[in-house]
Amino acid sequence: MTTGMTVLVTGANGWIGQALCARLRREGVDVRAAIRKEGAGTRTGVETGVETRYIIVGDIGADTDWSPALAGVDTVVHLAARVHQMRETAPDPLAAYRQTNVDATRKLVRDAARCGVRRFVFLSSVKVMGECSPVGQPFREADMPQPQDHYGRSKFEAETALWQEAGAMEAVVLRPPLVYGPGVRANFAALLRAVRQGWPLPVGSVDARRSLVALDNLVDALCVAMRHPRAAGEVFFVSDGQDLSVADLVRMLAQAMHRAPRIVPVPVELLHCAGWCAGKAAAVERLCSPLQVDSTKLRTMLGWIPPLSLEEGLRQTVEGTE
To answer: What pTM value is reported for the model?
Structure first.
C-alpha cells in the first residue's frame, strides 16, 4: 500500500539516511534516494513492496543538477553533508565544508523550489549554536547561533541559504545534538568499546550535562517535520529529553551490558592539564562543558513524543553495535 507521497532523501546511503529510507518504505512512501556513488539501481522494500529509486548525483556542490531527481517530488529531506573529519586532509577545510554543506544546499533549494517541491526539511546541527551551552541553560530556538568551528559555521550558512532561497516552498530545520543508535561510529563507538572492555574512565568528576537523541527518535522527528502543517517555516531542536553527564552515560551503558562501570573521579583541573599536555585541550574542554538543547517547542507545537526512552535507545545501541 502506498501513500501517494514522493520524497527525495539526500545522503540516503548514510547512517541516518538508511534508517529514514527504511522507515519511509515501511509507511508506503515512494522514496528517491540521492547518493554520491555506489549502490545504484532500484531496491524494493520487503515489508511494503514500495520501491526505492537510487539516483547517483556525484560529489555535490554549486553546479549539481538536481532536476532529474526532483521530478514529481513532494518533499525533500536533505541529509547529505560533509561531517567532522577525524583526519582533515583538505588544503582549505572551510572551503570544503562550504562546497558540500552550503553551496550544494543552496543549489538544491533553488532547484526544489523551481520544480514545485512542497516542503524542504533540512537536518542541521546543534553545532550552529557553538561548542557548549551556558550552565543550566539549554539552547532554545530563539537563541542566537554562534558556531565555533568550520562544520558548525557551514551548517548555519546552509540554514541561511535555505531561508533565502525557499520562496513559497515550506522549509523546516531540525537541529539534533549527538545522535546514537545501532551502528554508531566515531567517539560514541569508542566509548562503547571502552565500557565493554572494562577500561577505567576518568570522568567521575565531570558533571557537565549533554543532550542526546536516539537514531529512531531523530527519524521519527524527521517524519513529523515532513508532514505536520505547523512545522512549516520553523526551526526545532530535537533530543530524547533526558540530559546526562558522561559518567551517567557510562553507568547506563554498563548497565545495558550487564557490567560494572569503571569510573575514576579525576579532578577536572587534572583532566584539562592532561589534555593540554597531550595536545587534546579542545577535546577535553568539550568533554567538560555542557551542551544541552531544549526540545519543548517540537513537543508542544507538533505534539512530538520520542518513540524510544533513553534507556531503550541505549539498550538497542549496545545490542546493535560491535
So the answer is: 0.94
